[in-house]
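The instructor's notes for this session suggest beginning with a concrete chain rather than abstract definitions. Hand out the sequence below and ask the class to guess, before any prediction is shown, which regions might be ordered.
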Amino acid sequence: MTLLKTFHDLGLPQPLVSSLEAAGFSTPTKIQVEAIPSLLKGRDMLGIAQTGSGKTAAFGLPILAALMALPGRPRPMSARALILAPTRELAVQIDEAIRSFAGSAKRISTVLVLGGVSRHSQIQKIAKGVDVMIATPGRLQDLVDDGKVWLSETRFLVLDEADRMLDMGFIGPVKALAKAIGHKRQTMLFSATMAPNIADLAKDLLNDPLRVEAAPQGSTVVKIDQRVILAGAKAKRGVLNELLADEALEKVIIFARTKHGADRVTKNLGIDGHEAAAIHGNKTQNARQAALKGFASGAKRILVATDIAARGIDVPGITHVINYELPDDAENYVHRIGRTGRNGASGIAITLCDGTERSKLRDIERLIRRTLPVSGDLNLANTTGVKAAPAGADRGPRPGPRTPRNPKTQAPRRAERQMGAFAGHADEPARSQPHHQPSDAPRGKPAHAGKPAGGKDKPGKQRWTRSQKNAAKARREGGRRERVA
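After discussion, reveal the predicted structure:
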């Protein structure tokens, strides 16, 4: 199909087209050309498009066009359209995009329903009724269960990044919310990748859907230059510093696999002189939004994130994506690097891969059906110019095997010095206790300790050796024999 030149050619109303032109949108993308005309006719849709290709406008513009044509205002505690997203960041991005598309259409109202923030303001906005509700499934399900939201008036349902939603365990809430809406709705499922279980969900939620595939599953934007640098786990920090020394990396997202890893990378960047903000699931929603705003405004050059942000960041001008650690799921690689090269722009994606991640790299190459160019050397322990010390060099010579000490036959030198035994021979090794009792020692008591003060015994208490016990026993028996005689 030949791409149409303007949004007006797609059948959108003129007020909406004017708003798009004012926002800087002039030429529709392929997925928008494929989806918008059919959605304007009320068809259900199963859409597959690479990340950054304009899916939000593909489903958002037809919904706005339909809402502008509806008379009156939405009923209290209801929403005319519901857009579900797997993460808070993606929900915020969709809300900003919808309001940008609506532009001068001031009567279009939106509300964000997210976890991690106060419910009170959300409930207050919903109480008046809204046109578009953008929500994460968990928080919305809570409000529905509490009777704060009625979905019976909802006529448009969108599941964005549906495969991610299923991966995060939202299948139950999604089905429950769809059931609460009812069958009189138009439903759209969009994703950059389409897992096999999406087909089962589509059968349950969609009615005779039109399948639109703007790009093969798992494909990446052609304008993203992808490359791999091999580096050992301990050498990655040095490689990252060398990359960031290049001023061409103007706005960079660094992806780590775990929340702890993201914090560690952020801390190391600060130590190495690079100011960065971190965003992951352990951060509060306000902290996450502050980090995103600082990154989007240019106050922070570097943003460190986990996969929670792989589908939720749509910041213009991201020049580079660096995978400090490869994702466990190859599909997340597609979403990660899709943060750059958006809306027709070009970008660079660099992946640091250590020896334990080679299998993950192969999974990624199979998914995107490309062999990525590789450089670097896994055998180099340090790439920052500092010569790595040989293994064990900073540990000194290894001690020999330790000989266990028998406390019953050997007395520590410290105890001997403290008790005054073997006077003048404090430097001699400990020796066995004598089998006889000195003449000036009390009868039946040892002359010196067989164990240092402390331990299980009370401080300063003496302990007999076996030989002393036997000698004392022999003297007692000899005394009894003498008295009997």
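Then share the key points. Confidence is low (pLDDT under 50) at residues 382-401, 407-459. Residues 466-484 form the longest helix (19 residues).
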